[in-house]
């Protein structure tokens, strides 16, 4: 049987209308533009208001990606929504499928926090490589502002909201050149948005748990240490699988969590700053959206061109981390 390859042929993104800069944040918590900029590289972030939903942002990003890929919603076989903040705990992917009118597509949510887009892309690629599906829409979207404690200066300054999407298509040549995914649940307590149970006795002797999710809690130092150590390792492993030297990488595209993490990883890999894609300053950490959002901006600015090799890595809660090495296609490929 002939091998089926994977190409990424279109991208799109969407951001909320409202933005909040560091100066405004300093009116909410005891912080300053100087502290946030120097420790994180973030200047402002976008925040979804009550008129916006995960579904609306994701749908907007998807329409842009579908348009760029020059396909129609009816061509899509599968929709994967990488998110930790669905509008509905039963899943939001199906609602997006309905909004898009992607009637042929099966849709489901995938949760891997800030690694969600990378995990989702590898998952999507398996369905293409095994010949089951031709066109897959992958969305990374998060509205973490819903789950941030706006009185906790150690976390609320870091996050923002947004959505990004890509279309993957079956192709003769394989442009997903290598990947590596990892998890370490023993460090799960470093970063959580966890359910806090509260007992409710529904009948004598029968208790159920009727709690709520607690705001994001994070051990920033541990997450920082983990990212700086593990991300270069996983990128090197993915490059090895792709049989490529680091010099062949045109763009380093990391999850946009912290400029110091991005700089440290680039240094460790000896990738010069001109090859680093970053839009963190404008959006903060948008979790699963950060990689496709930054990719889409770079594509639409004409920075990333067809044939460019991109090393992308996501990392975050779980703990989870992973890397993908791919060649940007950005054009419609002949149907198989
Ligand atoms: N403004 C002013 N001061 C602050 C703020 C703030 N927003 N936040 C913390 N501080 C104070 C602390 O209270 C502390 O004060 P103290 O020395 O009097 O106790 C001081 O600043 C230093 O705090 P640290 O936590 O040591 O600061 P650090 O240099 O580690 O920076 C940061 C914190 C930016 C969170 C860093 O640890 C980091 O970036 N970690 C990685 C986090 C990350 O990337 N998370 C997301 C990845 S996973 C995901 O995306 C879901």
Structure report:
The structure is a single chain. This protein is an alpha+beta fold. It has two domains: 5-175, Peroxisomal Thiolase, Chain A, domain 1, CATH 3.40.47.10; 178-186 and 217-327, Thiolase/Chalcone synthase (Peroxisomal Thiolase, Chain A, domain 1, 3-Layer(aba) Sandwich), CATH 3.40.47. The chain is built from ten helices and 17 strands. The strands form six sheets. A five-stranded mixed sheet has the order 1-7-6-4-5, with helices on both faces. The longest helix is centred in the last third of the chain and has 22 residues, at 220-241. The radius of gyration is 20 Å and the shape is globular. The two termini are 14 Å apart. Acetyl coenzyme *A binds next to helix 2, helix 6 and helix 7. Residues 31, 35-36, 39-40, 113-114, 153-154, 157, 191, 218, 220-221, 223-224, 257-258, 261, 285, 287, 316-317 line the site of acetyl coenzyme *A.
């Amino acid at each position: 049987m002939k091998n089926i390859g994977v190409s990424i042929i279109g991208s799109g993104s969407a951001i909320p209308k409202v933005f909040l800069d560091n100066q405004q944040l300093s009116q909410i918590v005891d912080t300053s533009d100087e502290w946030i900029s120097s420790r994180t590289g973030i200047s402002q972030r976008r925040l979804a208001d009550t008129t916006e939903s995960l579904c609306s942002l994701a749908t907007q990003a998807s329409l842009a990606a579908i348009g760029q890929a020059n396909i129609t919603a009816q061509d899509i076989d599968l929709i994967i929504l990488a998110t930790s903040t669905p509008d509905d705990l039963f899943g939001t992917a199906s609602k997006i499928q309905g909004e898009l009118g992607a009637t042929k597509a099966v849709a489901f949510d995938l949760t891997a926090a800030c690694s969600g887009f990378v995990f989702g892309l590898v998952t999507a690629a398996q369905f293409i490589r095994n010949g089951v599906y031709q066109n897959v829409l992958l969305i990374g979207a998060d509205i973490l502002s819903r789950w941030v404690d706006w009185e906790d200066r150690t976390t609320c300054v870091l996050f923002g909201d947004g959505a990004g999407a890509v279309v993957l298509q079956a192709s003769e040549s394989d442009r997903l050149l290598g990947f590596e995914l990892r998890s370490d649940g023993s460090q799960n307590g470093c970063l959580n948005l966890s359910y806090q149970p509260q007992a409710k006795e529904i009948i004598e002797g029968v208790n159920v748990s009727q709690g709520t999710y607690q705001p994001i809690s994070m051990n920033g130092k541990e997450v920082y240490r983990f990212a700086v150590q593990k991300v270069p390792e996983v990128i090197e492993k993915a490059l090895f699988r792709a049989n490529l030297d680091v010099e062949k990488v045109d763009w380093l595209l990391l999850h946009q969590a912290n400029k110091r993490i991005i700089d440290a990883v680039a240094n460790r890999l000896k990738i010069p700053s001109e090859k680093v894609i970053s839009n963190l300053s404008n959006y903060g950490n948008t979790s699963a959206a950060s990689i496709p959002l930054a990719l889409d901006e770079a594509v639409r600015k004409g920075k990333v061109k067809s044939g460019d090799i991109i090393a992308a890595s996501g990392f975050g809660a779980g703990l989870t981390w992973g890397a993908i090495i791919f060649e940007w296609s950005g054009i419609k490929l002949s149907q198989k």
